[in-house]
Amino acid sequence: MKTIEINHQQKYYRIWEIFPGFCTWFIFVMAIVLSIYASKLFASLIIIYAVYWLLKALIMSIRLIVGYKQYKENISMDWLKKCKNNVKNWEDVYHVVITATYKESFETLKYSLESICKANYPSKKIIFVLATEGRAKEIGRNNAKKLMNIFGSRFFHFAHIEHPANLPNEVVGKGANITYAAKEILKFIDAKKIPHDNVVVTTLDADHRPDRQYFAVLTYKYLLSNNRTHKSYQPLPMFLNNIWDVPIVIRSISLGSSFWHMTEATRPRWLRNFAAHAQPLSGLIETNFWSKLTIVEDGHQYWRSFFTFDGKYSVVPLHIPIYQDAVLSPKGYFSTFSEQYLQFKRWAWGASDIAYVVTSSIKNKQIPFYSKFTKIIRLTEGCLSWSTTSIILFFAGWLPFFVNPNFVHSVTAFNFPLIYSRILAIAMIGMIITLIISTLLLPARPHKSKNISVIIEWIITPFILPFSNIIFSAIPAIHAQTLLAMGKYMDYRVTEKKAVKYETSD
């Protein structure tokens, strides 16, 4: 086993970096060409495509119901009691929590540490690491000092580790920070003679607040997993910390993201790391921790582990949430929308993994071809769907009416609006399911407001959702893929979020 790092000089690597952006723009160009020269064929293809996505949306709605049921069952269990009753030597497990921070406020970090301390798990089995950046020494050291005064005695160990600026062979980003912190805290773990197999490492952002059951369920799942050191453990990312304080558009986007991860957790075969995730220390050592050369270290860690362990690697879903902030800029309303766009653009940079996966698949002869091929197809389809689906479904189908004068007089043109509208009407079933689960999932409003305002929001959501998906999801994905194709590599930036204090898990 050998960890494979990103190598932009590798043969054909640039071709595969260009590939997702090229495919996206090829799809859009072909949509225009077919609308002009083969409008009837194009309209038929759009209907087939819409039916495909209708079936997919209905299946996802079913998965969302299943995922919500699993979530409700898991948060209601006493997982610490299950550990005590069903798992031997659970007390031997230590949890390292690495919280990466750059310029986030003291309040944001304080609320996150409070949630860790409230966990239904002995805090003396938790090693907390505050990973700050040397590029922001003053705020990092001030926050560390205040947090250590409040929480230092609560954990088995509280460590402040400052990542030096401008180290060689690194890009600015979370991956380099948490890798440096993990290697430093490893010295403490070895000094205490704690076996590496007894340590599970969870990485958090500054705004992440684990559910009370998180550490207990992680311990339980870890100890009962086969080949457990070659797995990672993925909780549910739920963007609910400040959900009632953000604009309705951002709220719908944040809920949509939460629902997506809830449905993904119902199919572990395709699950990959996202944001907060856990991995055994021994497995991290084998992969040389996280990549220091990408701005999307979470999803990329899945692929590094997959190839390091020759495909014998998987992700275990934890149907327990780690609550996160929805985007809410302290600079105001319009800055919030700008930050949301930039956050999705950074997430969409995950398309850069296609080049890594393809070239690594070619080099690794130990993994079966079918396994590698299906992974590549799944990854590519996800990236292209992200950048194209919303635009195709809501705009492309009407192109022939505008670019081909002869099309409007055809039988196809007469039937298309009727068929297409019925497909979209059936798709509303999924929207209704989503709204119902939204109502069940959302925390209580922390401030007084009339119920009529909530009802109005749910009524207008179906009308704004298509446009918000295009503006804040599809277009950022196109932007990221185009930059990647042009060789203009993105820099890491922290999304601006305003801390809000209320109990999400209540």
The proportion of residues in beta strands is: 5-15%
Q: Count the beta strands.
A: 8
Please mark out the parts with pLDDT under 50 across 5 or more consecutive residues, or reply none.
none
The ordered string of helix (H) and strand (E) elements is HHHEHEHEHEEHEHEHHEHHHHHH
Instruction: State the separation between the terminal residues, measured CA to CA.
Output: 44 Å
Q: What is the typical, i.e. mean, pLDDT?
A: 91
Q: Sheet with the most strands?
A: 5 strands, mixed
Radius of gyration: 24 Å
Note the total helix count.
16
Helicity, as a percent range: 55-70%
Structural class: alpha/beta
For the biggest β-sheet, the strand order reads 3-2-1-4-7
Instruction: Tell me, briefly, the overall form.
Output: globular
Concise description?
With 506 residues, the protein is an alpha/beta fold.
Written account of the structure:
The protein is 57% helix and 10% strand. It has 16 helices and eight strands. A five-stranded mixed beta sheet has the order 3-2-1-4-7, with helices on both faces.
Layout of secondary structure:
Elements: H1 13-37, H2 39-76, H3 79-86, E1 94-100, H4 106-117, E2 126-133, H5 137-151, E3 157-163, H6 174-191, E4 199-205, E5 209-210, H7 214-224, E6 231-238, H8 248-264, E7 277-280, H9 281-286, H10 297-308, E8 314-323, H11 333-348, H12 353-363, H13 369-394, H14 399-403, H15 411-441, H16 451-485
Parallel strand pairs: 1-2, 1-4, 2-3, 6-8
Antiparallel strand pairs: 4-7, 5-8
Helix pairs in contact: 1-2, 1-12, 1-13, 1-16, 2-8, 2-15, 3-7, 4-5, 8-16, 10-12, 11-16, 12-13, 13-16
